[in-house]
Specification:
The protein is mainly alpha-helical and 501 residues long. It has helices spanning 19-29, 32-45, 66-73, 95-107, 109-112, 120-135, 144-152, 159-169, 184-190, 197-207, 220-226, 235-244, 246-250, 254-261, 265-276, 324-331, 337-374, 376-381, 391-398, 402-409, 441-454, 463-472, 479-488, 494-497; strands spanning 50-51, 298-302, 308-312, 320-321, 413-416, 419-422, 430-432, 438-440. It has a four-stranded mixed β-sheet with strand order 3-2-5-6, covered by helices on one side. It has a two-stranded antiparallel ribbon with strand order 1-4.
Length: 501
């Protein structure tokens, strides 16, 4: 095999994303709260960006906002060449752009001769906001360990027992269990000074008498047994079910339980109802779950004409502007070259940021408007009337790439007359009905739930039967699709749905 080196010319196409394009895509993908954080970060990192005071209820700028209003005019697109949108030339030193900025600044000399100063009213408002935020901060909720230790303080027990119970409380997990990995033998050896297993068993019995019932259990069965009281209905049957038939209950094998225990089916069902009221996670009530707070990015409202108006909910965003003094410093020929270059770079970054936010607004509004036009039946009649819709269809309507649509709807929420939904909720595939009409998978899913709800529980429909029912309703689907939707909706199998009464 012969190896040699040659020179050749070849023409290829490569896509190189400019930093400005990358930033624009990042801004487009951010939801409103993340965009607010991004702007706050830019205000800290970019010294040429400053925060303007907010507007009042009538939309008029408060005192001290003259600089912001004038600076915003710099990017307006009018017939005057001096007022065209600022476009940064990445291949040059941007002298032409700064010449145009300087010319516009002179036209607005009387408006820009004063630097932005926060008014007394603005300072008071900012102080009120901080005070309200501090007042509304949630206090630390009481933990399970705190609750158990508080109860222990009122118990008349020996000092050693008190110490050992508190030692065990420190090992209780968030569900209220003493994890299996912490055996009493291991805990006895790791205790300082070491104690006997019998002492820890006594301490555990004291712990298991505390509230909430079931705390300190080492497994599910022990947790449920600890919650039984002498007055518990069907106590003996419930105890037998807990000890030997939890798996049979899970799979609705009531005849098996009847055959092995000799209990009546009716008594077994009543005992299962009692069992359902026991708490398998007694410590969960003390767990502070992180519930996400959804802030809609878009508001869709129906007007008097029956059409839908689209409005972006971006009032959360801070008003930022570029003070005139930084533009002038960047144009001063006699100033330090490094300072001028630094200011030009920061002004360029600030303009890019403002342009990206404006581009985000326009794209998000266009995409939402196209979605609403296609999904009017969803908004007027309900989610079961959703139409099949792909992102490529919206991309073709708006005139952008499909990845732009994907970024625009990612993690965005829209407030509609039907409720608050993620924008992705309006997209979905579908299939053709027996009449050749396009039907969304969501519609088929709703029909499936309707059939299951109306079935005879003494003889529930199998997945094959559900396929037949859907075909009779005009929705040809495969068995695996029915199984997928049934499991996705947490609907048990036909055997588990059977009523044995």
């Amino acid at each position: 095999m012969r190896t040699e080196m040659t020179l050749a010319t070849r023409m290829t196409q490569n896509m190189i994303l400019a930093p400005r394009m990358i930033q624009s895509m990042e801004i487009l993908q951010l939801p409103i709260m993340a965009l607010q954080e991004r702007l706050q970060q830019e205000l800290q990192e970019n010294p040429v960006l400053e925060l303007a005071e907010s507007t009042n209820e009538e939309g008029q700028a408060l005192e001290g906002d003259e600089d912001y209003a004038a600076t915003a005019t710099l990017v307006e697109d009018t017939s005057d060449p001096g007022n065209k949108e600022l476009v940064i030339d990445e291949s040059s030193s941007n002298e032409l752009d700064f010449d145009r900025l300087e010319a516009i600044s002179k036209d607005w000399e009387e408006h820009l001769n004063e630097e932005h100063r926060p008014s007394r009213n603005g300072i008071d408002q900012e102080g009120d906001k901080k005070h309200d935020a501090m007042q509304n901060m949630a206090s630390r909720p009481q933990s399970l360990q705190d609750y158990l230790n508080d109860q222990l303080a009122f118990m008349d027990i020996k000092a050693l027992q008190d110490k050992l119970v508190r030692y065990l409380i420190a090992h209780i997990d968030e569900n209220g269990y003493l994890p299996e990995k912490f055996t009493l033998e291991d805990l006895a050896q790791s205790c300082q000074p070491a104690v006997s297993v019998a002492d820890l068993e006594d301490a555990l019995q004291i712990l298991q008498k505390l509230d909430p019932p079931g705390v300190g259990a080492r497994d599910l069965r022990e947790c449920l047994l600890l919650q039984l009281r002498p007055e518990t209905p069907h106590r003996d049957i419930v105890r037998e079910l807990i000890l030997h038939h939890l798996e049979d209950i899970q799979f609705n094998r009531l005849p098996v339980i009847q055959r092995r225990t000799g209990f009546d089916i009716g008594a077994i069902k009543e005992a299962i109802e009692v069992l359902k009221h026991l708490n398998p996670r007694p410590g969960a009530q003390f767990t502070s779950e992180n519930i996400p707070y959804v802030v809609p990015d878009i508001l869709v409202e129906r007007n008097e004409d029956g059409n839908y108006d689209i409005r972006l909910l971006d009032d959360w965003l801070p008003n930022v502007y570029i003070p005139r003094r930084y533009v002038e410093l960047a144009k001063q020929k006699g100033s330090d070259p490094k300072t001028r270059e630094y200011l030009k770079h920061k002004i360029q970054a600030a303009e890019w940021l403002k342009d990206s936010i404006e581009q985000r607004r326009k794209t998000l509004e266009k995409v939402t408007r196209a979605i609403v036009e296609h999904q009017k039946a969803f908004l007027e009649k309900g989610p079961e009337h959703i139409e099949p819709l792909k992102m490529q269809q919206i991309a073709d309507l708006v005139g952008v790439h499909v990845t732009t649509v994907s970024r625009a709807v990612d993690d965005k929420w829209v407030q509609t007359p039907r409720g608050i939904f993620p924008l992705k909720r309006f997209f979905g595939g579908g299939t053709q009905s027996n009449t050749g009409e396009e039907v969304a998978w969501e519609t088929i899913k709703q029909k499936l739930l309707e059939i299951i709800e109306k079935e005879d529980k003494s003889n529930p429909l199998s997945d094959e039967d559900l396929v037949t029912k859907l075909n009779e309703a005009g929705y040809p689907v495969a068995r695996r699709t029915v199984t997928k939707y049934r499991k996705g909706a947490s609907i048990p199998s036909s055997r588990q749905r059977k009523d044995w009464a």
